[in-house]
Specification:
Layout (H helix, E strand, L loop, with lengths): L6 H10 L6 H13 L6 H31 L25
Helix pairs in contact: 1-3
Length: 97
């Protein structure tokens, strides 16, 4: 108690408190810092974690929106087949021969 916490210690506490799913990103940050001969600072950890969480939340929102629309019978345009009325398929001329 009463001891000042250094930036490196604070970054270590932040990193060690993250779930296992963040290990890939943590390894990437550690390797990058090692190559640059720098230490990992808390603001860098917080910024990357914030970006990652926002991206994850956006992905989850998009996924739920697609699932919700699928239950309503609404299809995503990228997955819809052509719904044109093709009644005269017999009048098509073949050019493969």
């Amino acid at each position: 108690m009463g001891k000042a916490i250094t930036e490196e210690d604070y970054a270590s506490v932040l990193i060690s408190s993250l779930p296992m799913s963040y290990n890939g990103m943590i390894s990437s940050m550690a390797m990058s810092a090692d190559i640059q001969k720098a230490s990992i600072m808390p603001d860098l950890v917080i910024r990357h974690m914030t970006d990652l969480v926002i991206r994850h939340m956006t992905d989850q929102y998009q996924k739920r929106l697609i699932q919700k629309n699928a239950h309503k019978g609404i299809q995503d345009e990228s997955f819809t087949a052509s719904t044109r009325n093709n009644k005269n398929k017999r009048n098509i001329e073949c050019f493969n021969c």
